[in-house]
Amino acid sequence: MNASEARPKYKVAVVQAASVAFDREKTLDKLQRLTREAASQGAKLVLFPEAFVSAYPRGLDFGAVVGSRTDQGRDDFRRYWESSVDVPGPAMETLANAARDNGVFLVVGVVERDGGTLYCTVVFFAPDGSYLGKHRKVMPTASERLVWGFGDGSTMPVFETPLGKLGAVICWENYLPLLRANMYAQGIEIYCAPTADARDSWTATVRHIAVEGRCFVLSCNQFNRRKDFPADYASGLGDDPQTVMTRGGSCIVDPFGNFLAGPHFDGEAILVAEIDRAQVVRGKYDLDVVGHYARPDIFHLHVDTRVKQPVTREETGDAVGPEVPKKLRADETKSPLQRLSP
């Protein structure tokens, strides 16, 4: 069996489109339609941008300055929280159905809520609709830290799939060299990079990652205008409905840094490219940064993948069920000050 037979070619798609900002249900409707369009073009994997469900709040300050938050800013956060996604939850069922109905691997940037905290998250679904897992952004950038929490090391997966080893790193997380190394060490081949960065420097970044990791990089950004946000959206970018808020720049790059599709800056689009996994092996011939091109005798990375909870409750004793209060000694009924009294 030759390499091309062992690693068949297939198509992937990145969807450059705008959310229906702060409207989860309408955004999900749009996502289902665009997933069908991508699948109709032969895509076996479909990627959506960072925070697609239901908004990347570009230009919004949430009423915060150092030492003060406004009531309007708190309402902005409330609206953002109300339009976010529970994992698991009804929105996840919709995404699972979209993957199953179209027979695709579906990778989507969502704003996940967990209690009172929001996370910038990517969720993964298989073609049968099964939920594979998620990645929470470990390092929100600048003002994103005002509204998004930090993911821990427990959600940095690379999934073994028939299309190859699949994972995601979100936007400027990609500037964390050690995080990239962790993904390379897991053998990532399809490196999804949903983003909100449309700078020229970002295009250079994803090409570098493709070469460094000898992997395919799928970079997916939104293209949106001021009119794609609510009328009462207090953006610092003005109120002209035609103002471009995010200019896109989505692209697909092969393991040698060549563009297979994009970068695209001219509105919404579905970019489709053919993936030849044999290119990964050809690239590893002279560059494998976690193999023959590594120096573990000099450099070593330790990755902590444990779940980190702010509160951990541990049961004591052998009893099962509600804890029964112990009978206090006479001196234990006294206050600390009383116990110190002669």
Low-confidence stretches: 323-342
CATH class, please? Alpha Beta
Total beta strands:
17
- CATH homology group: Carbon-nitrogen hydrolase
CA radius of gyration: 23 Å
Helix count, per DSSP?
8
Structural class: alpha/beta
The CATH architecture category equals 4-Layer Sandwich
Mean pLDDT: 92
Q: Regarding quaternary structure, how should these chains be classified?
A: single chain
Taken from the alpha-carbon principal axes, the silhouette is globular
List the helices and strands and how they pair.
Layout: H1 3-6, E1 10-16, H2 24-40, E2 43-47, E3 64-65, E4 68-69, H3 71-82, E5 85-86, H4 90-102, E6 105-114, E7 117-125, E8 131-136, E9 158-161, E10 164-168, H5 177-185, E11 190-194, H6 200-213, E12 216-220, E13 223-225, E14 244-247, E15 250-253, E16 259-264, E17 269-275, H7 278-284, H8 336-340
Parallel strand pairs: 1-2, 2-6, 5-6, 10-11, 11-12
Antiparallel strand pairs: 1-17, 3-4, 6-7, 7-8, 9-10, 12-15, 13-14, 15-16
Helix pairs in contact: 2-4
